[in-house]
Design a protein that fits this description.
Elements (H helix, E strand, L loop, with lengths): L6 E3 L8 H7 L4 H9 L5 H9 L14 H13 L3 E5 L4 H16 L3 E5 L12 H9 L2 E7 L6 H9 L3 E5 L13 E3 L15 H13 L7 H10 L6 H16 L3 H10 L8 H18 L3 H8 L3 H36 L8 E6 L6 H12 L3 E7 L4 E7 L6 H6 L7 E4 L3 E6 L4 H15 L8 E3 L2 E2 L7 H7 L14 E14 L5 E8 L2 E7 L14 E13 L2 E13 L3 E4 L6 H7 L5 E5 L2 H10 L4 E4 H5 L4 E2 L2 E6 L4 H9 L1 E2 L3 E7 L12 H14 L1 E3 H12 L3 H13 L3 E4 L2 E4 L12 H17 L3 H9 L11 H5 L4
Parallel strand pairs: 1-12, 2-3, 2-4, 4-5, 5-6, 7-8, 13-14, 16-18, 19-25, 20-21, 20-23, 22-24, 23-25
Antiparallel strand pairs: 8-9, 9-11, 10-11, 14-15, 14-17, 15-16, 17-18, 26-28, 27-28
Helix pairs in contact: 1-2, 5-8, 5-9, 5-13, 6-7, 8-9, 9-10, 9-12, 11-13, 11-14, 12-14, 13-14, 14-15, 24-25
Length: 791
Amino acid sequence: MLRPKTRWMMEEADFSGKEQLEKELNVSSMTAALLSKRGYRTIEEASFFLKKSMENLHDPFQLNGMKEAVERIHQAVNDNEKILIFGDYDADGVSSTMIMIHVLKELQADFGWYIPNRFTEGYGPNIPALEQAAEEGASLVITVDTGIAAVPEVKAANEMGLDVIVTDHHEPQPELPDAYCIINPKKPGCAYPFKELAGAGVALKTAEALLGSFPSHLLDIFTIGTISDLVPLLDENRILVSRGLQALAVSKKPGIQALKRICGIEEGAMEEDNVGFAIGPRINAAGRMEAADPAVHLLASTSQEEADEWAKMIDELNRERQKIVNEMTKEAVEEVENSYPPSENRVLVIARKGWSPGVIGIVASRLIEQFYRPVIVLGIDEETGEAKGSARSIQGFDMFGELSQSRDILPHFGGHTMAAGLTMDPGDIDELRRRLEEQAAASLNEEDFIPSTIVDMKVPITDVTTAALEELQKLGPFGTGNPKPVFMLGNATLASKRKIGSGKNHLKFELEQDGKRLDGVGFHLGKLDDHTTENASVRAVGELSINEWNGYRKPQLFLKDLAVDEWQLFDKRQQKNIEETVELLPDKNAVIVAFHEENARRLLARFPEKTILSGREVYSSPPRQAANLVFADMPVHTSDLEDCLAQCRDVENVYVFFRSDDVLYFQLDPGREDFKWYYGFLKKRESFNLEKHGEELARRKGWKYSTISFMSHVFFELDFVTIENGIVSMKEAPAKRDLHDSVSYQKNKDQREAEQVLLYSTYTELKERLALFIQAPGGNNETKEKVGHGF
């Protein structure tokens, strides 16, 4: 058996209207079912979703404050006022800054731009930067992707004579800044129909209002910011990103061309993942490692040579970022395991001096993946005496809401349900940890700490065709709010499997069902190869895609999780290194059986923490749980194995080595005629020097010396002969006895039978025989009594 790593959540779906969608829209059953499940059940709803028409965009002037902002910016342009664009250092902030740069250039405004340094200035507008802008003659500040929480900073700007227009998309706090105007779809009282624009989306809407027409030429930059910021790809975001991906694929902007080359993205190709996992992280790397300015210079480049230089710089910063993240993650994991073990902590709050605030968010996400607990990671700056942190959460724990209960010790924080950023006094970290632990105890139960996988639908392999998967792309672009569909394939056979990759940490496999096969790959799931057997009946969940190789296209499953619901037999009979397998088994409910005492002692010395029993100890002890059951060596008789299995409950996996130092199966088995001849030979000679003439006799008869030695020992046990100093002497008138009366003869027969049944049977034969006695979880525990002698 193999239990899934996550809870598979497949809600009962309302597929009403599916047949009508399939017919009217001329789509496959799979596409129609997904549309219906995601709430698009009428022809009108589904058509709206699939068409992604630009006609369905909202009027930017529906955003509260847009009219005032446009009038003030045009006034500044007409009066030749100096304007400062105040941005943010992440990919959304950089993209928002670039959109506003393009617009003000087109308006021929007198402007400059500024993005604060994450390390020396922190997030959002700050008073020294605003003072510098005022000193340099600026009279208008436009914030992009920031500013909604800058209450004291905007107040100070007003006192300096600066007008501040805030364009932002983050959650407003109870007190709003006293700005000239605020453009934020989430602002209380704003009637804008769609609330989930990213900072780049708000900037694009502002650009549209300022230019008087839709700025299609800025869709490529908008798409980078929107995908990178993980906002829901629904409504306007979905429409605009679908066009934006096309724009990115053919963009002639030198900065984007350079980015695509350094990311290895082919010309004319662009998918959501290219932005989310290649372009976005590189732009983010600039702000995470130093300052975001190089990313702005890259996107603002007017020559390819200049763009290539900036792209090379941020790619190097990204490599450095990856190295630091790996080092910090290792330290953070050690901190958790040594000081705040997940078994005792519902929320993980860890801090250390010197941790870079630029990458702690990534480290927090890594800890979520490993421990699945709400996480806050803080870096303590000894110079400022502040701790800056990033928080990441799990389903069921509203991080922003929970942190809001500790405003008294969090002078600066912001975010949303699943993530937040904060600044605090290091002396309050223990108190924050205590409070969050109490809050988690009240709001989370044990099941909440098991990660879940949302499954859209179950499909048979016969439905997984290239045509169906091509059609499925119409449901994209995929991302937050419109995730890639996750499918479950049940009752499939694991037809083949192997580890791949330089580190052998990925899994390549094939599933088979009703005669049709489906290729699959599991990235970072190479360990599943050690816990599954070929031809096992499995359930798999993952994303479906089309794999293109050498011009050939075929469906492929990107595996997320795998389950085997039946007990598995791991055939290790050709392997000698039993220690390697035993080392990987969990200590709990694992039983290693060695039928021979010396083997049991050797294994116990090597693995004192494991449950290692001799055969006699197993079948003479009360029944025990043995989820993982290992047979290290050969039993003398098959009944020993039966008796052992009868005492083991809830067996999930059986590992058979059946090691034997003295295999008899391929040795000559002397029959009754051989014994008869040798008996007559001894009777005629009366005595025989076994040590001196045994080899010669064996050659003449075509036997081995061990055969003659064995028969001599059998006769000795039957009291037919005496053996002294290697000389076998016949007794006078020995009593008649059957060969089976000899312990050695019977043991030889039993061992040969056991070897034939256990050691030299095929995999299928062995599994069928063991199945008669295996007591798997939820199985019938009376099998042995009903079957009798299964071997």
